[in-house]
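Dear colleagues,

As part of the handover before I leave the project, I'm documenting each prediction I ran so the next person doesn't have to rerun anything. This entry is a single chain, and its sequence is reproduced below.
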Amino acid sequence: MIPSKAFAQVILLALSSLCLTAQAKDLLAVGTSFSQIFELQPNGEYTGLGVDILNRFAQQQSVNIHYQITPWRRAISMVERGQADILIGPYDTPEREANLAFATKAFYRDNMVFYARVGHEIIWNGDYASIKGQRIGKMQGWSYGPTFNEQTKSLNINEFVDIKSGIERLSRGDLDLLATNSRNTDAVLAQIKIPKAITPITPIIDVQDGFMAFPKQAKFDPLRHRFDSFFDEMIQNGTFTTLGQKYRVTLPY
């Protein structure tokens, strides 16, 4: 029979071993290609603000993080099912909160805007009645805020799985407006040629903050809590601000 004090020490050692084992594992972070946030370079390297943050987190926690870019809906599903540990960059919505556990603080901010063809006058004053009858494109699976979602139910909406397709359709005149964000759109515009220039118009549609998100299952809670603590430290010591400047990303703080 083990004495109570010795037994307690054995339990503590066992728990410590389990904690180390739980942390010393490979993690999978997924998402779709987001300019300046999560990108795969031609040399096979993953880059972006989200990757830089997670790489620093992995170093602190002594874990290995592997990355995978997939279609957005698939990436969300993988994390919802616990097949991946971290989802990079989702906007927080009530619908997503039902199946995902979001980090406490966002790590980037986007202005959602309409793009229109240069020289093609569109009256948009923030009132959705002003664009009734216009052909509007949006990205499949993106969140544009509750007002947009509600107000566009009765409008002519076309969905696209990638920004490039939406840009090309708008430029050709197959759309009148494209709802997107400048960060992703400007990156694609720099890589492709289009028949007619497009430009963002004001006012903005909404502001959306992007987060890291984790599976909802309780076993992933320690990972999320460790990330929250780590990210708070990054904000406090100024590292987060420096990274935001490096990647030219708008920060929420």
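Residues 4-23 form the longest helix (20 residues). The longest strand covers residues 198-215.

All the best with the project,
I.
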